[in-house]
Amino acid sequence: MRLTDEQLRRLDEDGFLVLPGVFTPEEVDALRAEVPGMVAEQRPENPREAGKHTVRNILSLHRRNELYRRLVSHPRMLEPARQILGEDMYAQQVKINLKSGFDGGGFEWHTDFATHHNRDGVPRPLALNFHIHLDDVTEFNGPLMFVPGSHKREIALQRSVDGEKWELWTVPRDAVTSLVNELGMVSAKGPRGTLLIFGDNLLHVSTSNVSPWSRWIFSVIYNPCTNQATRDVPEMAHERDRQPLHALADGCLLQPVLPLAA
Ligand SMILES: O=C(O)CCC(=O)C(=O)O
């Protein structure tokens, strides 16, 4: 899949793209069917919501599940990523943010690069975050909200913690206030199968999910192989396999799945 010149222009100007209908209902159903089994696993790659038993994210799922291994190399994400970055990439972080109905917590105002740089030692803000909506994402179940054009600004930072233990660099309220007053906010809503693309320096946030409906979003962060992390952090936070990804066939998600060898 190639992005049009107009989409590339909007990505450069706004810092994000929302593309409905990139993944089909059959593909989303196949991806969703793998989730409950992974959520039920007791392992550190399933961190919980702060103070709750509810699983917050499923991490490193491309190393746990064959369908998600394929998804990370899907041409409808890897080809646009290569078109934008023009070089080989590795999967820096792979997860589903579950944001369960009633219990799913939000994410503070942040830019991804602040944490990638200050925690992981990634040199430059080149990484791209690709999200796939595995649920319909509406105003009710905690969509991401972006500040368009904020990726071109210098933004103040503060060190914070996400959930029970994750280090996350966030943005102080006065800096958020002046950027939002000037640039506004956009919520990234869209039905199942929507693809979001956004860059490492874009200011964003999401609220907790007060609705009864889940809000599963898959996320893979692609980083150029020439821009690797320079610090050791837990592998689920920043993957250690830094080999270039190669695109699979377009229909790879609907091919029969055999369990990954142990
Ligand atoms: O899932 C969310 O609501 C927020 C995700 C996010 O902030 C990110 O992927 O950088």
What this model shows, in words?
23% of the residues lie in helices and 22% in strands. By secondary structure, it is of the alpha+beta class. The protein has a single domain, classed as q2cbj1_9rhob like domain (Jelly Rolls), CATH 2.60.120. The longest helix has 11 residues, at 75-85. The structure holds 2-oxoglutaric acid. Residues 97, 107, 112, 129, 142, 144, 204, 206, 217, 219 line the site of 2-oxoglutaric acid (AKG).
List keywords for this structure.
alpha+beta; binds 2-oxoglutaric acid; 262 residues; Jelly Rolls; 4-stranded antiparallel β-sheet
Q: How many runs of DSSP E, i.e. beta strands? A: 12
Query: What ligands does this structure carry?
Result: 2-oxoglutaric acid
Do you know the CATH architecture? Sandwich
- Radius of gyration, in Å, reads 17 Å
| CATH class value | Mainly Beta
Shape descriptor: globular
Mean residue pLDDT:
94
Largest sheet: 6 strands, antiparallel
Poorly predicted runs are none
